[in-house]
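Incident log entry.

Two folding requests arrived from the same account within the same minute. Monitoring flagged them as a possible duplicate submission, but the sequences differ. Recording both here for audit purposes.

Request one:
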Amino acid sequence: MNRRLETVRLRNLELLIDEAGSAVQLARIAGTNSSYLSQIRHRMPTQSGKPRRIGDDLAEKLERGMGKPEGWMDEPHGSAHLQTASRGSDGPGRHPLISWVQAREWPQIAKTYVPHPEDEQFPCPVECSHESYVLRVRGVSMEPKFHDGELIFVDPKIPPAHGKYVVVRLDDSSEATFKQFIVEGDALYLKALNPDWPTPIIEIDSDTTICGAVIFKGETLLTDRPV
């Protein structure tokens, strides 16, 4: 399978998950395993070290289960394909500073999001997709690398990989959270960098959704703070 087709199928998988309501529900409809879908979404490696892919058999199951025409998985559809195949084509742009509650639902919000004149927006110092967004770090769970008040730029089009920092949605929380992505064998974990954090590592299950990978961090200098 060529890289372009692999990328298209992964993005279409996300569209089907949104349409079905969850990865678990999509797996039920398509007659496949939700754990396997999670492994594909998170690009978990096979024994040969290559990331798991959506093969032809699974693509056909997904198409049939969701009532899509044959070959639907192999063609770009909708806003999930906004010129992200070539990362440098998006230009500098400006990206909104959103809340952690908004980050949890950003894939849906981004489709119709129109910035208010008073909304804070920032140009990303590195190449990123149009749907990238900015969050302000809260708390100390990711110290000493990330500090309270710093800004992080998050690109929802970059797949998670071992060691990356990711924003995730947990179904039992009203807000997104931010941790390091860890792959150990067939298991996936989220790790807090602060060694004193009470729950430094949690395992990712099928109810966890990756909302994007952190691509840049910085901080703003507020004039009302003492120097």
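Request two (distinct sequence, not a duplicate):
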Amino acid sequence: MSSDVLTIVARHDPARWMGTLRHRDAAELPFDASQVASTAPLLFDATVYVDQLKGQLPTAIISLISSRTILHAAPALAEIAVTVGVLHPADERTELSLKPILETFRRIPLQRVVSPANETWLEAAVIAGILARTQSLAREARRKFLHDALLFLMAAENGAILISRNSRDLDLLLQMKPSVGVLLYQRR
């Protein structure tokens, strides 16, 4: 385990990352679905599930999803599953809110759920730590950034394209590791 961390630190030498990264213009980010590799599977950020349930996914994303293998990241599913526990059983709105969430989980084939390898967790932590320092993130934002870094690296680990609405955080992650496949979108 300790050798994994040393390898990761050598790969992402924190001393190389001293200045604050600037957020790029949307035109410099991967928002064009037609530019996505034609055979790569897709991995969803939690934003995709949320926007799909709300009917707010763009048509280009829906079309892409219908023609690809979909992988489901355990951490993104966990982010959605928290809602199941948070909704109060005595609240009359809970049943109506839970129904589409539970139906989404029922439709996910277990063989398409992927979990991060130990090294992926460690690399995500190092990258999130570097960005927390260089971007002066508040303590409460660090855990969210770790989650984003984990999904980002899981896409690379699985040869997939990460689909997300989270352009701010993924812009920074792409500046650190531009080879990872990402497709960003904005809600309809």
